[in-house]
Amino acid sequence: MEIKVLGTGCSTCKALYATVEKVIKELGIDATLVKEEDLEKIMNYNVMSLPALVIDEKVVAKGRISESDVKKLLTL
């Protein structure tokens, strides 16, 4: 599984990255976590609000995402 956090480096983006990292470790998920801050690459995902969470190249959430929501998305 490849997980990407799309964001330009704002505090909300950094917080989401830390949350996803924590949940991956907590649940023992075998995943690659990538922080994508390149605006050109982010634009390819056609998202208008950041941060955004991408799982296996599919945008699954945008904006503020709670830890419980991250857990749900990663265990689907």
Brief synopsis:
The protein is α+β, with helices and mostly antiparallel strands.
> Helical element count?
3
Biggest sheet features: 4 strands, mixed
Distance between the termini: 12 Å
Strand content: 25-35%
Spans where pLDDT lies below 50 across 5 or more residues: none
Architecture, CATH level 2?
3-Layer(aba) Sandwich
Category by helix and strand content:
alpha+beta
Q: Whole-number average pLDDT?
A: 94
- The helical percent reads 25-40%
The fourth-level CATH homologous superfamily is Glutaredoxin
Compute the number of strand runs: 4
Determine the CATH topology: Glutaredoxin
Description of the structure:
The protein has helices spanning 11-27, 39-43, 67-74, and strands spanning 2-6, 32-36, 52-55, 58-62. The chain has a single domain (2-65), classed as Glutaredoxin, CATH 3.40.30.10. A four-stranded mixed beta sheet has the order 2-1-3-4. It is 39% helix and 25% strand. It is globular, with a radius of gyration of 11 Å. Helix 1 links the parallel strand 1 (2-6) and strand 2 (32-36). Helix 1 packs across helix 3 (67-74). The chain is of the alpha+beta class. The two termini are 12 Å apart. It has three helices and four strands, in the order βαβαββα.
